[in-house]
Amino acid sequence: MHQDGLRVEGVALAGIAARFGTPCYVYSRAALTAAYAGYRDALQAHGLADRSLICYAVKANSNLAILNLFARLGAGFDIVSAGELARVLAAGGSPEKIVFSGVGKSRAEMRAALEAGIHCFNVESASELDHLNEVAGSLGRRAPVSLRVNPDVDARTHPYISTGLKSAKFGVAIADAFDIYRRAASLPHIAVKGIDCHIGSQLLDPAPAAEAADKVLALVDRLAAAGIVLEHIDLGGGMGIQYRADEPAPATTDYLAPMLAKLAGRREKLVFEPGRSLVGNAGLLLTRVDVLKPGEEKHFAVVDAAMNDLMRPALYDAWHDIVKVGADDTATGAAMSYEIVGPVCESGDFLGHDRLLALREGDLLAILSAGAYGMAMASNYNTRPRAAEVMVDGGSVHLIRRREEIAELFALESVLP
Length: 417
Ligand SMILES: Cc1ncc(COP(=O)(O)O)c(C=O)c1O
Ligand SMILES: N[C@@H](CCCC[NH3+])C(=O)O
Known about the structure:
By secondary structure, this protein is of the alpha/beta class. It has 2 domains: 7-26 and 281-409, Lyase, Ornithine Decarboxylase, Chain A, domain 1; 29-275, Alanine racemase (TIM Barrel), CATH 3.20.20.10. 30% of the residues lie in helices and 24% in strands. The protein has helices at residues 13-20, 29-45, 64-73, 82-90, 107-116, 126-138, 174-186, 207-225, 252-263, 276-279, 312-316, 406-409; strands spanning 7-8, 11-12, 24-28, 52-57, 76-79, 98-100, 120-123, 143-150, 172-173, 190-196, 232-234, 269-272, 283-294, 299-303, 322-324, 336-341, 350-357, 364-367, 388-393, 396-401. Strands 3, 13, 14, 15, 16, 17, 18, 19 and 20 form a 9-stranded mixed sheet that branches. 46% of the residues are buried. The model has no long low-confidence stretch (mean pLDDT 95). The structure holds pyridoxal-5'-phosphate and lysine (LYS). The site of lysine has 6 residues, from loops.
């Protein structure tokens, strides 16, 4: 903490709040760059950097400035919609470095991605394969394809973000994959390129991902023996980050090491789809305390950010550390336990329970680790304009998304004649 309170890189958060208002998402270019370098370094350490493609999972945070920064660093992109495709292209991403995931790609989305010339479709069902074959045929092309296999591995994470169990809607059962590959290889407008697997998000233990990699590699070898030789292996994303001061996450190199060790001696190219681990701890949500409301059982601090800005606490009961931005604690009085809540009309509208803080109305708070699945999942619930987003770069701050204006929120609506 400096004299003028918390800083991101060289810039005081209090100054950002004064200039851009609150709530405001604040990202650090240096932190984004360092997170990406963490992956490159881990791959380099295993001699895999030259045959690996890091496809940033756009859903984690799709702001154009962030996509553009990763594109400049050499990243590819993992997309799940035509909207994300358009964003990546608008941000200067290379189409030949895009992989397209998702259980329900429409024919129009397939067409857009084929026309753009993406690297690969991660196909998630036998039916999707037929649709893609048909669409590629209508364009006179062959669609590059990986099958997303579901290895039935327990990722040991929150059930809402676990994707690799048999019960999940994602991918095809690994037991069925061999037959579907054979079918894929026989389709005239499909080019079998790779295999894909993503077992869930916010994984802190490297063992499930390594176990999934074993199952994937066994299938790759079995396919090769049958004459279906894959060019690349996509092991998805999922690496978790530290959300709580007292709950450290493994370093990127340590998390990836068991998986990478299995890939080092092989010939295939590798694809990774990290989202959260590239952006999560490079962003925070800056908010102001509007009202302090002592209660009989609990004391509430009502802030100007809410579940519509950051829905992870409401949705997953997720924890985000919350810290005071100001440095002048002397006049504040004793710390006490607060419920940090937003103004939205829902009891589930909270950003943190039971936080020990010394607060006055008007204080600024920083909700940490909010760079991933924060703004990307924000809504206009209660007709609240979505927050501004800024990126700090050394000593400068750039507005990368202006705050929405209220009139914009109903500009697409019309009344009956
Ligand atoms: C197919 C796919 N790839 C990559 C990701 C990115 O995951 P994470 O943000 O956990 O790295 C997700 C989201 O979980 C996903 O569904
Ligand atoms: N939205 C989730 C992650 C979803 C992962 C998407 N496949 C979160 O905030 O943790």
